[in-house]
Records
---
Amino acid sequence: MTKPGKSKTMAAPLQAAAPTRGMSLWSRLQRSAVERLHVRLESLIVLAGLCLIMSFLSPFFLSINNFLNILLATSTIGVLAIAATFVIGSGGLDLSLGSVMGLAGVVGAYAAVNFGLPAPLAVIACLGAGAAAGHVNGQLVTRAFVPAFIVTLGMLGLARGLALVISDGRVIYGLPSTLLYIGQGRPFGIPMPVIIFILTALIMHCILAYTRFGRHTLAIGDNENAARTAGIKVERHRRILYTLSGGLAGLAGLLFMARINSGDPTAGLNYELTAITAAIIGGTNLFGGRGSILGTMVGALIMGVLQNGLNLLAVQSYYQQMAIGAVLILAVFIDQYQIRRESRV
Amino acid sequence: MTAPLLQISGICKSFGSVDVLFGVDLSVEAGEVVGLVGDNGAGKSTLMKAITGLYTADSGNILFDGKPILHLDPGARRALGIEMIYQDLALARQQDVASNIFLGREPVKRLFGLVNLIDKPTMDRQAGAMIERLGAHLPSISRPVGSFSGGQQQTVAIARALTFNPKLVIMDEPTAALAVREVQSVLDLIRRLKSEGIAIILISHRLNDVLSVTDRIVVLRHGRAAADLVTSRTSMNEVVAEIVGGNDMADAAEHEKRG
């Protein structure tokens, strides 16, 4: 009799103290990471663990230069992953990210080289081509009622084909130097693509987490009907999201084109796979309703560190492809496992 | 006598070749509780969705506060003071309590005169106050509502309907999935809202609840308002007879009484 009584008096003040009563330290940490940082604790630990392992395996891993290399390599994928987070968070899907990125790069390079347009106009051509392709996706999804999977799969082929048609299947060389600065400039020693990528990520994070547009995006992905009854114009919102997604793919195309100093029609091949993987690892719910850009950035860094580490260890790039695919399946498996465990039936 | 708060006349709605509503008339006064009953497929939910704007009526007219509202979208009708608590609650289950209550109407703060950012502290404070006013207890206001029990989720749906001072609240089967004690608190809530001058349309299959809490009962049958009964002057038998459409339905009424 004394034992339960004793434990009860000890438990009482604890219960009164915090709303997190009865929770383990782990789940409390989990919750505060999600609520304060919008990042899943697991993905942060995986990133830290990955960095630790890599720094043991390779003497070149831990250096500022290599760190900037990782960020530079992540910048293109990272921008695509931001787009993937918005679209998937809204319950949609954009498989055309990599192809649209390639198309945008070719359009920008063609405008600059063949038409001799000044750099700002070439930039606009790049972003515009991406946004236009995304807008077509949005129109087809919301007005023609073709499933997003099919629309964007079709656009994956259309955009890649168009990029090859415009460039005649060849790489477009000879970009003006002002355009190259976007990809190769290093103000304060930091590569321009990294700066643009981080700025874009911060802005898009604030939009998703702290604006009506962002909250409505997740609400639509969570329960489209609830969003509609709340007066949100769901179809219009989706059209904007797909256009935004295309525009971000255009930005990725611009960064890539300016970095490699050419418009390559095969740029971004299979990048959607990595981008979607980064978004999912970062905590975006594959079926919509949950996602954050900071989380996705951690996911993108995990992919970046993984690729960088495998490169440093001189692992054949074929194996990297396999690693990315495996990580995607593993991330969704863990997510679904947790949802099943936590959900009420 | 002043014009009623809600005046529906001649509403028709069909889906493809299926006519669901043909020429429904219905009026609700301010502070009045009207029960809407009818068999499955009688058109109750369709009629309500025509009022909230989720469906557009094919023809007819709806006046709210004397003004036509048929051309308005769901958000605009909500802003006028028409709220609905859906049978499936229509909650975003991965979002927290405040996000659900304020969905589509989030308070914002202007930053640097440039961007509007959501004012989450205000949202949380008001959401908490609303939940408290309803006398409900939730484990935590910052948890996804999908982690709550059915009754707790309904509390959130009710709080969402009441936060913006509605004039008319439509409740679609609010007691269908609740335990006995919870049913009583919903009925008490309806009486409280009525005393505050809020009009309510209550859709329910539980005729005992409808008879105990409403002023009037409108029976929908085959897409028409078949009867408009004053609750104090009607009986279970009469209501059931109107629902099934016969006059000799004592058996059905008996069955309903026992159930």
---
Amino acid sequence: MRLAGRLCLAFLLLVACDSAGRLLSWAFGLPVPGTVIGILILLALLLSLRRIPEPVARVSDFLVTHLNFFYIPAGVGVMGYGALLTRDLWPVIIALVVSTFLAMLAAGFAFQWTARLTEKREEQ
Amino acid sequence: MSAFSAGDLMTAVLWIAVTLAFYLLARRIQGAAGGTPLANLVLLGAAPIIALIYVADIELNAYMQGGKVLLWLVGPATVAIAVPLYRNFARVRSALLPMSVSLVVGSSVAVLSALLIGEAMGASVETIRALAPKSVSTPIAMGIAEEIGGYPSLAAAFVIFTGIVGAVFGAGFFTLVRIRDARARGFAMGIAAHGIGTASIFREGEVQGTFSGVAMALNGIITALVLPLLWLAFA
């Protein structure tokens, strides 16, 4: 029972970081999304603690493992926009698919080549 | 304050349960398929729900009573990425230069190629405006689309479609073109396919997932800052 309570507290900590981030982003009109600020807040907390409290580690690892689950409604929601897409359907599909592959290619090689040039010893 | 009736609550709980059931089924299927990212969990989970809603003639809004609860949870679940980020902090900090180069190159290619291909294929200007921010996470993309005069909801749909394309084909594509560095695989996924790509590449490894999360955050920021300016030049 005590464990369950501590896991709940850990989850509430994540919610609090997210909410604080959203509030800061909104209050100062920042171009940075609130959730990103939330990540930075939690990271700063962990860096100052110099360790990850066990319940925070367990809840976070669980959520990250199941991150896909929370995105399923977004996938379902796309259906609602189907009607908007009748006109430019093929240009849209081709632009999105080709552009996504190009972005992965460009970003991946840019990273890999820069790393090879600047790091003498290859990591793993 | 809007009234939130017991009926709404039941509807929300029902659809969350249905989503959970299809998610668990999707994991079974992915497991049976050898864990391949081709069997993407968002796609496998959403497809039967779309079919169910369509066949049973259910309003999308009814489903979204539950859906919006899960979408709200994307926030705290994304904040949880701070934990793997903390564990891999030294690795991330030592890769600042490759990350910066990749961010600038990848972010530009993601936006410009979408604009140019959309234009070349004869898409309308409203569509092109919604295409431009397709590689960043939904709330940022909707904000940018609004700023440059596109439909935010259309932008949201393009973002999700992009995320699924990256999540389904990314890992296989990286292997095909010999992007083998775990950090590069993750970072490129985060640049091109934001949170949905990140959720998927975490299943390949924590290093990949962490770099993907960092890339997603950085790309969201840089795109929000630069794209509206870029749009002025393009238009």
